[in-house]
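Something for you to look into today, if you have time. What I am after is a single protein written out in full by you. I want to see for myself how the chain folds. Could you add the entry underneath, on a fresh line?
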Amino acid sequence: MSSSITVFSAKRRLLGTAGAFVLAGALIAGCTSNEPESTDDGDENTAEESGDDGAASGGNANDETGETVTIGFSGPEADHGWLAAINSSALAEADKYDDVELRAAEGTNDASLQIQQVETFINEGVDAIVLLPTDGAALTDIATRAMDAGIPVVNVDREFSSPFAARTTILGDNYGMGVSAGTYACQLIEENNIDDPVIAEIAGIDALPLTQDRSQGFADALDACGEDVDNRVAAEFTVQSGEAVTSNLLQAAPEIDIIWNHDDDQGVGVKAAFDNAGRDEFFFIGGAGSSNAMEWIQQGEMEATVLYPPTQAADGIRLARLLAQGKGMSDLVQVEVPRRIVLNAPVVTADNVDEYMHLGFDS
């Protein structure tokens, strides 16, 4: 199978040629990394940022047109809403800059094909590569080859197994998602004077480190206010699995005060199970930040959702452009792009949903 690379420039707009991309079909690894997050940053700099719409704004010298650079982008297939948003946001972000020529590879879950795609980027001599690897460990060697060839690599979401494989890494915060959800649950308990609350958790695939990190963060935050999870089930990041495990949960627990669901894509099924059972006595908290979740919050059918920013690859394009042009991040005193950036996991509620609505993705 040969790799497929599509070239876009300022004169050939990405969004008008979206049909050239296959953005469907993906393993559920979906909203997240399939590699455990490193907790040892060494001498790396860590910047905490909240997701934004990535719009190039006036008044920032970094946004002024500079030397044209070629960026290679390779991401996953996308039958999961978050993954589709990752890919489309990267394409749209590159299209905002007159000085960026994007070479976008066809989305894939085949590590061997993705290795071929990166090899093509290296042979073409691109100025930078943005890579959300199908498997971080499997793509480490080829990413290291790119770095050795003088091509800075921006590693998105799923980490490589060597620090030499990327110039910078941009990540969502899975543990932080759990902490945000648990902290908000504690707030709800206090504000509503809930005695001996029954707390339920609908996780994603338990075998994945990302799910383990989210659950651990949730448990740690609840422990801080003297609570714990009473009922827990695990789905598979799909609508069907979300509905099935939630139906079982509702039968096992006749009364629930708070439910946290890890993933808003599977949350479509979770919500269907709620509706089918006629259950709405609990505060419903989601995860990732889909358009469905945002709308349910606006309509009063959902309490909150915790973002896992779908802007990571778009931010990766911005960082790759800065690296290729020898620039730093204008809001930092430091003159170079940091080695590691971890995005924030904010809680979206009725009070701030309008601020985050533009980041919502289709489930």
Observations:
- The chain has two domains: 5-172+310-344, 174-307.
- The CA atoms of residues 122 and 146 lie 6 Å apart.
